[in-house]
Design a protein that fits this description.
By secondary structure, the protein is an alpha+beta fold. The protein folds into two domains: about 180 residues, Nucleoside Triphosphate Pyrophosphohydrolase (Alpha-Beta Complex); about 160 residues, Jelly Rolls, CATH 2.60.120. It contains 13 helices and 14 strands. The strands form three sheets. Strands 1, 2, 3, 4, 5 and 6 form a six-stranded mixed beta sheet that branches.
């Protein structure tokens, strides 16, 4: 550690011990080695103690963290190829402060190993840690560092999927490491992807398709013969109001969601236009495969039932048309062809 870094460290610890008002920033620096996450620790920190930095009232916490990282690591710190991101906050009774946690992702560089060999930093290999949960009102009663780090890595996994600036910095190795931390789809999509026989049946009878940004996937009133599961990217659902000629934005769907189910299950034309917002990859299933998958899983069936009801009713609200739902109907009849067609006819003003 340089003399400047040591002086900065002493100043930070003095502010913490003196009870200087304000939040405390917690730094969790991580990197990869052999595709395994490594937490970097200072030799002065115990196993239970995290890397804390006092926040100055006249400075944004993010700037304080960056300043501290630059002071500690010196010239080897590369802010433009690193990620410095606030991932959570919590109140720590022991120090009576709010702690802002910052995950710091450092690029894989040879100097990190050299620093470890020289004793300037310590390596802690991160295993299969999972975040803890509170209830609907209270946070978890106890939070260990592993719990905080697990939450931070889960947060980074979501950013790796949805945030282009984060994607531009993360290496393919990081993307692979974070992928298992992404939430798994539930309902119909979850059943297709998580059950080997269902996935095999879908895969063998499915087609992988790709679309560029702004490309129309299908238009309202087109024939409907496929359901689309989004495996990458986002799409907009647009509905043309035939009464006034205006196009209405219905929804934006992303990875893990599906569209085209109304036409496929109802044997109708497409009820909306779908356009790619970003580059999009989809898995398409024809009507026969969808029917067989629904017959194999009550969970998948109920999920599509709920989605169908909600989307048809939403289309009705957008066009000031009342669509009566039948929540007391037998589940075996809720998504039958006749009910869907009748509801869509109401939507079109045909009955």
């Amino acid at each position: 550690m340089s003399s400047d870094s040591y002086a900065y460290e002493q100043l930070a610890q003095q502010r913490l011990s003196n009870g200087t008002p304000g939040a405390v920033c917690e730094i969790l620096p991580v990197t990869l080695e052999s595709n395994q996450v490594i937490l970097l620790r200072r030799p002065t920190d115990s196993h239970a103690q995290s890397w804390l930095v006092s926040h100055q009232p006249d400075r944004h916490p993010n700037e304080a963290v960056l300043w501290h990282l630059a002071a500690f690591f010196g010239e080897v710190f590369e802010p433009h190829t690193s990620i410095v991101h606030s991932t959570s906050w919590r109140y720590e009774c022991q120090i009576r402060r709010v702690i802002l946690t910052y995950l710091v992702v450092l690029p894989q560089r040879s100097w990190i190993r050299h620093w470890m060999e020289d004793g300037r930093i310590l390596f802690e290999y991160v295993g299969a840690i999972q975040k803890v949960q509170g209830d609907n009102i209270h946070p978890p009663e106890k939070m260990k560092m592993d719990d905080v780090l697990a939450h931070a890595l889960d947060h980074l996994a979501l950013l790796s999927r949805d945030d282009r600036s984060i994607q531009s910095v993360l290496t393919p190795e990081w993307i692979d490491v974070l992928e298992p931390r992404l939430p798994r789809p539930a309902g119909f999509v979850g059943f297709v992807l998580s059950h080997p026989l269902a996935f095999q049946d879908a895969h063998e009878n499915a087609e992988k398709v790709q679309f560029v940004a702004d490309q129309i996937i299908f238009r309202q009133s087109d024939p409907a013969d496929k359901l689309y599961i989004i495996t990458k990217g986002q799409v907009d659902v647009l509905r043309l109001n035939k009464r006034n000629g205006r196009e209405i934005h219905v929804a934006r769907l992303k990875e893990g969601q599906y569209f085209g189910e109304i036409g496929v299950r109802g044997h109708t034309e497409r009820t909306a236009t779908v356009r790619a917002v970003t580059p999009v990859e989809c898995l398409t299933l024809n009507r026969k495969v969808v029917a067989s998958l629904l017959a194999a899983s009550r969970e998948a069936y109920n999920d599509m039932d709920r989605v169908l009801r909600r989307r048809i009713m939403e289309l009705g609200v957008l066009e000031d048309t009342v669509i009566e739902d039948s929540f007391d109907a037998d589940l075996n009849t809720v998504i039958e062809t006749r009910m869907i067609r009748d509801q869509l006819k109401v939507l079109e003003g045909m009955i």
